[in-house]
Amino acid sequence: MKVTPPLPAPPKPAHTPCQHCTGTGCSIYADRPEPCQIFMCWWLGSQSVKELRLPHALRPDRTGVVLDLNSAGYVIAHCHRPDAWKREPMRRWLLIMARRTRVLIEAEGSTHLLDPSGATVELTRIGVDPVTNETLYVRSVAA
User: Fold this and answer.
1) What distance in Å separates the CA atoms of residue 11 and residue 19, rounded to the nearest whole number?
2) pTM, two decimal places
């Protein structure tokens, strides 16, 4: 029987803000851990496929938003500044995506689900999927 060694633990749960993010880049870029070395944000990944290329106006260092996809195909907008996602052209792009799939807005330690109308609903983190390392959420209930 072949035994596969366990994968090393990731430095943090997937799709959570990193303590080393400055809003314009990574403060430990030269010494970042391996999971970070292999991570490619949506904008950067799109640049190698002409038909899928996102415009330069959506570059993370210009918008303050790092775009990503989770294993379920949801768009995740990691916002360095709370309202970064509301500025054009990012807002327009996220609203288009919200008509196609779920869009999660992460800012200041909270996560919201973006509705195609532009409204948001706060989500509560309930854990991390042990297989995918994806953060799991439910809609928050008003007290």
Assistant:
1) 11
2) 0.78
**Whole-angstrom Cα distance, residue 123 to residue 19?**
21
Q: Are the C-beta atoms of 63 and 87 separated by less than 8 Å?
A: yes
Task: Supply the DSSP string of 22-90, one letter for each residue.
Answer: -SSSBTTGGG--HHHHH---HHHHHTT-GGGPPPGGG-HHHHSEEEEE-TT--EEEEESSTTGGGSTTH
List pLDDT tens digits, range 65-89: 999 988 888 999 999 888 999 999 9
β 120-128/110-114 pair status: antiparallel
Retrieve residue 21's tokens.
């993010």
Asked whether the beta carbons of 28 and 11 are under 8 A apart, the reply is no
The tokens of 140 are what? 């928050």
